[in-house]
Amino acid sequence: MTVEVLIHRLDPELPLPSYAHPGDAGADLYAAADVDLLPGERAMVGTGVAIALPDGFAAFVHPRSGLAARHGVTLVNAPGTVDAGYRGEIRVTLLNTDTKNAVRIQRGDRVAQLVIQRVEKAAFHEVTRLPGSARGTDGFGSTGR
Description:
Elements lengths: L5 E4 L17 E4 L4 E3 L4 E11 L4 E6 L2 H7 L1 E3 L4 E3 L6 E8 L6 E3 L4 E9 L27
Antiparallel strand pairs: 1-4, 2-10, 3-9, 4-8, 5-7, 5-10, 6-8
């Protein structure tokens, strides 16, 4: 299924988001500015684009596996959520997880991936007690015991 997404190029010199290979789920987003990330440092970087999604859809900003594997760069808020009603620039908060080496991100580098997904609205109903389940209230790490 193809979803029509309106895009406003805020930086005409940067490429539009694009899929690197057929079948890819994420379209590459590009850095609009140079940034030097010292070990453990984070920085917010624009991507030079704003989008308008149809109602019932959201975009999710994911880290790029290559940046993570080669340089330890990930996104602080991953995945970041772009709601259908948001019209501002998509920005990413990069984090250098490497403890020893700085990383230089250059304008035009691919820094994140944008995944478009259909989302459902929930109707929340308050109750005094939830129905039981096999898992119950077991939380973090409960399947590793």
